[in-house]
């Protein structure tokens, strides 16, 4: 029996896929990367916004073709899309043998037994009581990096977001369990540990009444073997002075802040059910840059949110221009059923959203290029990730997170191997890449 897996969506979903693969391995089933030879294929889906839903559906249909043209006998859908639309998908997609919810994926071994016995089923549990146990994982990331998921679910309830309905309430993993997993990853040779959750700043609040991320970073910093600790999804409203000090003083913690801000108009921030005003965000950003010189700040913005006027958009552009973020992602608002914003009457036309997206992206691209050019002649430690067809090495520094930020190409790369940490002098900066030479 050979099992294939396709994982879509965010790093948090990838961790779930790795847990399922670990459980499959414990059942002593063979895992294959070739869907054409898999007897059973699992698609771990994303259901966050429209484009992610389309990708998930298309991928499931592509994998279903292996029932006709390959070895596949069974097709299982897991993840957010299945959680969100289980009844509709079960009826409309007879190719799918099982749909497994976001709090039921650790039962994947039982589900496999059921479908092999000829049963077709939906397996979803109520999300009110979250299961945050983390069985042994089978890592799918490169040998030098791994994600560490510290919590599940979300309580922020931003008006545009469906995640609380798909993942349930915010539930922190037990502190000792998180630390034990991190130590095991360090012992296995992981150099870069990337801490993730829907909102990492809230870690521990639900279980202890305290924000435990600063303490966790201190303990992770003490682990032997880990060289970089990167933290993603840091919400501004719980970014305390204690957390700023952790970033400023801990030598392994990357001076890299991933902080989703979404907009700069107070009126729209309130409509989004965000907890901060522009002035509060600007105060936090000023604190971060003052206390942590050379810090990289990445953020995300939504354009075309219901009711966004030209004045609101101009305010957002003014904010981006003044703050000069090193990296920023821009998303066109996706009207999602079941959300507060999805039911708002003043939706923005698709053409307007598209134009604002390109305008803000162009503004940010110019800023990123200027910042990269300012780094010319700087010396950076770079983690080597691979080699291109011209035998240039490429990788990332502490300024870049995997898959979302740019790449550093390295000349004179003889003798380097994937996973090496090398000192590089930056020669040229471009919008999304930099070119340097090995020192």
Structure keywords:
single chain; 439 residues; alpha/beta; 5-stranded mixed beta barrel; 14 helices; 19 strands; globular
Contiguous runs where pLDDT drops below 50 for at least 5 residues? none
Number of helices: 14
In terms of DSSP E residues, the strand content is 15-25%
Q: How would you write the strand order of the largest sheet?
A: 2-1-3-4-5-6
Structural class, by secondary structure, is alpha/beta
- DSSP E strands, number: 19
Residues in helix, %: 25-40%
Bulk shape: globular
What is this structure's SSE topology?
Layout lengths: L1 E6 L3 H16 L3 E3 L7 E6 L4 H15 L1 H4 L4 E6 H13 L5 E3 L7 H9 L4 E3 L21 E5 L1 E2 L10 H5 L3 E2 L2 H13 L4 E5 L8 H4 L4 H9 L6 E4 L9 H9 L6 E3 L7 H6 L6 H14 L4 E8 L6 H14 L3 E6 L17 H25 L4 E9 L5 E4 L10 E5 L9 E9 L3 E6 L1
Parallel strand pairs: 1-2, 1-3, 3-4, 4-5, 5-6, 7-10, 10-11, 12-13, 13-14, 17-19
Antiparallel strand pairs: 8-9, 15-16, 15-18, 16-17, 18-19
Helix pairs in contact: 9-10, 13-14
């Amino acid at each position: 029996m050979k099992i294939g897996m396709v994982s879509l969506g965010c790093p948090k979903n990838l961790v779930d896929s790795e847990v399922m693969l670990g459980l499959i391995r414990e059942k002593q089933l063979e895992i294959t990367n070739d869907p054409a030879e898999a007897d059973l294929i699992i698609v771990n889906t994303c259901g966050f916004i429209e484009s992610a839903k389309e990708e998930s559906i298309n991928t499931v249909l592509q994998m279903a073709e292996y029932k006709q043209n390959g070895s596949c006998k069974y097709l299982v859908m897991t993840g957010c899309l299945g959680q969100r639309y289980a009844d509709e998908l079960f009826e409309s997609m007879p190719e799918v043998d099982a749909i497994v919810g976001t709090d039921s994926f650790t039962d994947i071994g039982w589900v496999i037994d059921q479908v092999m016995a000829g049963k077709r089923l939906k397996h979803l549990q109520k999300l009110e009581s979250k299961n945050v146990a983390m069985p042994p994982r089978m890592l799918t990331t490169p040998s030098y990096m791994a994600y560490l998921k510290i919590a599940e679910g979300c309580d922020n309830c931003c008006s545009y977001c469906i995640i609380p309905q798909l993942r349930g309430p915010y539930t922190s993993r037990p502190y000792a369990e998180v630390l034990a997993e991190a130590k095991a990853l360090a012992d296995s040779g992981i150099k870069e540990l990337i801490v993730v959750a829907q909102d990492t700043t809230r870690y521990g609040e639900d279980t202890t009444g305290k924000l435990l991320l600063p303490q966790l970073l201190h303990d992770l910093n003490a682990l032997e073997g880990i060289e970089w600790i990167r933290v993603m999804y840091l919400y501004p409203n719980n970014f305390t002075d204690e957390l700023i000090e952790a970033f400023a003083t801990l030598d392994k913690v990357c001076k890299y802040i991933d902080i989703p801000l979404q907009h700069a108009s107070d009126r729209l921030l309130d409509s989004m059910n965000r907890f901060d005003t522009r002035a509060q965000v600007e105060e936090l950003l000023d604190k971060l840059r003052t206390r942590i010189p050379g810090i990289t700040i990445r953020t995300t913005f939504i354009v075309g949110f219901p009711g966004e006027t030209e004045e609101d958009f101009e305010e957002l552009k003014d904010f981006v221009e003044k703050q000069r973020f090193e990296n920023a992602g821009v998303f066109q608002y996706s009207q999602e059923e079941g959300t507060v914003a999805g039911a708002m009457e003043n939706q923005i036309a698709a053409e307007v959203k598209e134009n604002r997206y390109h305008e803000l992206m162009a503004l940010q691209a110019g800023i990123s290029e200027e910042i990269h050019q300012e780094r010319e002649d700087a010396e950076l430690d770079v983690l080597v990730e691979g080699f291109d067809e011209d035998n240039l090495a490429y990788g990332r520094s502490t300024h870049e997170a995997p898959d979302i930020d740019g790449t550093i190409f390295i000349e004179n790369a003889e003798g380097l191997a994937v996973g090496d940490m090398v000192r590089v002098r930056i020669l040229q900066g471009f919008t999304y890449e930099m070119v340097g030479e090995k020192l």
